[in-house]
Amino acid sequence: MEGKLASDDEYQKAGHSFLNAPATAPAFERLESSLLRAFEGFPKLVPPPQTAAKAQRVFQMRTYESPSQAAHRRKIEMFHSGEFDIFREAGFNQVFYGDMLIGPRLPNLTYMLSFPDMSELNAKWAAFSSNPNWKKLVSSPRFNYESIVSNITNLILNPTSYSQI
Q1: Residue 129 lies inside a defined structural domain of this protein
Q2: Which residues pair with 31 in a beta bridge?
Q3: I want to staple 97 with a disulfide (CB 3.0 to 4.6 A). Which of 90, 111, 113, 140 is the partner?
Q4: For residues 51 and 3, what is the distance between their CA atoms, to the nearest angstrom?
Q5: Structural domain total, the chain
């Protein structure tokens, strides 16, 4: 792929400043690649309503690492057993859910939510955590007899002006 892109004049012209950035002003510090497969119950990326209007929005990207493959599968099952619906009931803008197939710190899953601002993010999470369906799901013997998530990475992201989401 690298060779094909190197001989693609249009690609080289469009990416010139990025591709030829000097070492004193690099375009990036490091590059990391991952491959995620969309969850069966949430198969497509859904841009939040604020995207079309280019309105203010923040994204929350959460990655859940699991201590084993069995625990990882149970966490994905938990999303399919009602967690998607609880997010919807709490008013979240759900952007995507993905099971990481290739990448660091496996097994893990990543999902992204969107909010108009940080106060809305906090309000939605308060609604989520107090939802009776969440309390029932999280107390289910299927999901609470051992830890199915061993580490959570939580990133708050601001979109660029050219963001497609």
Answers
A1: yes
A2: none
A3: 111
A4: 35
A5: 1
Q: Is the pTM of this model over 0.70?
A: yes
Distance of alpha carbon 54 from alpha carbon 161, whole angstroms: 8
CATH number (domain holding residue 136): 3.30.70.100
Any domain includes 29: no
16 within domain boundaries: no
Q: Which domain holds residue 115?
A: 35-157
In a domain, 164, yes or no: no
Q: Is 84 within 8 Å of 94 (Cβ atoms)?
A: yes
Please give the single-letter amino acid code of residue 118: M
pLDDT tens across the length of the chain (165 residues) = 889 999 999 999 999 999 999 999 998 888 889 999 999 999 999 999 888 888 899 999 999 999 999 999 999 999 999 999 999 999 999 999 999 999 999 999 999 999 999 999 999 999 999 999 999 999 999 998 889 999 999 999 999 888 889
